[in-house]
Amino acid sequence: MRFVSDPSISVKIRKMKQRVKWRDPLIVQRDIDQTQLKLDDGSDDSPEFSFLVIGDTGSGSSQHQNPQRRVAEQMLPHLDTCRFVLHTGDVIYLVGSSEYYAENFIKPYREFLVGGDRPKQIRYDQMLFKLPTLPVPGNHDYYDLPLLQGFLTGITLPVRRLLKFQLDFDMGWHGSFQGKAYAQAFLDCLYHLRNPDEFTRHLDQHYTAISDTGRCLRYEPGVFTRLPNRYYSFRYGGIDFFALDSNTFNAPQPLPKTREGNRRRRALEQQRDQLEQEKLQLLERSATLNPDEPEDAEHLYDINTKIEQLDEVAIDIQKQLDTHEPPVIDLEQLDWLKQRLTDSWHNSEVRGRVIYFHHPPYVTESTKWHQAQTIMVRHHLRQVFDQVAAAVGSLADDRSIVDLVLNGHAHCLEHLRTLDTGHADSHMDWIVCGGSGYSLRRQRQEGPELTERFTDKTGEYERPVARSQLYIGRSGHGSTKRRPYSFIRIDVQPGTPPKFVVQPFVVERSQHAWNFDQPKPFVI
């Protein structure tokens, strides 16, 4: 039994292009770059500025008094001193449905929205941000419900709410419609502008900024806060920011048609069946618990968390089993990143580079490192970095191709640094900020060091490629259980290369109470 389904990469790309009228003749005629935006916030373009990072939010009310709202409350004092918020994906759980934007996004972040004092009157597709909020799509923002699953969850929703059903997910009648809800919430969806005159007026009103690559969208807080595309870039304080959609270059390669490939397939099928059995056991266990009892409510929250985690692993396994031909890969986006990164290095006005996207290439959360999607995202990113390094040559002068990579997907806060990987992603800093509201995860039992298998003339061997510097996630058991939800503030210092002062903020749930913590900042 699968709770969710994931559209194919080709469908994701095609649908998103249709929604923004990708390369429409009227857009081409105006020399508009649909992957660029300019933040027009009325502030001086100072090399010293700050921004916030959150990720994997999307949770509604729960017996834990909505951890996402607790995090949002701790972000409020930074509204006047930070220039924007980056969101690393999974805005809405469980299936990115428009049904849940009101409860799972608008209400928790109401102070960030124009008209937020009346959150019930804000439509998800008409949100206007006071502070620029710049997300990338996560896997849950693309998820859908199988037809029968959607019908059953929809017709039973009123009953489940009335009876306080022991184990419940934020699922109603439908899913995201292949990312449609995310697009309507955040992107400048041009497909509804069918009248040529109306379309022309819109372009001439909102695509008036000038960039290195032509005209582009002007993002104006409180006035017009839409993004031009599912992946995009912008420059602030001499730093180039690149936002990617990793959902379209994470597909696994097909299993080889060899004895080893067949052995791997059988092992995956066995693992998938074990996951299904474990989910059924958890569902049976949930039926014996009373959500009105505090201890039982804690157990139900843990079961909900575990089932979502098992389903995610099952989806990764099924992707491998279902792939029989080389997968579709979003080469257009990867080529765009390669070219824009190269151009950035050749621009003397740029002093640093930050990339953010959903799936982390490096992470020590308990389930992610060996997933096929993690491996493929790391593979494609390495290819791009290697090509950029070759193109810029001595311009990099012993600096990393990018100064910082930000991710979500893993429900924790983690800072890692790569070692010698044999690629241009060596000796780089990576921050996973995916613990801002949804179920938290533990660090893997193997510990903070990540190793990969290499081959040389002597044979195969393993060596370390990354090491975790900080991990804030779920820990403890029973009465010692701790759930530290988090976000970060990053203060960008002047100079070349820039320094980033990273300040974590933690809102921890422990022993039925909330505690607030501010760990020591660290410098990148």
Give your account of this protein's structure:
The model is unreliable at 150-167 (pLDDT under 50). It is globular, with a radius of gyration of 22 Å. Strand 3 (85-87), helix 4 and strand 4 (133-135) form a beta-alpha-beta unit. The strands form 3 sheets. Strands 7-8-9-10-12-11-14-13 form an 8-stranded mixed β-sheet, with helices on one face. Strands 2, 3, 4, 15, 16, 17 and 18 form a 7-stranded mixed β-sheet that branches. It has helices at 9-19, 25-29, 67-75, 101-106, 147-162, 180-186, 196-206, 259-286, 294-322, 331-345, 372-392; strands spanning 32-39, 49-54, 85-87, 133-135, 209-211, 214-219, 232-236, 239-243, 352-356, 404-407, 413-418, 429-433, 449-456, 459-472, 482-492, 500-510, 513-517, 522-523. With 524 residues, the chain is an alpha/beta fold. Helix 8 packs antiparallel against helix 9 (294-322) and helix 10 packs parallel to helix 11 (372-392). It is built from 11 helices and 18 strands.
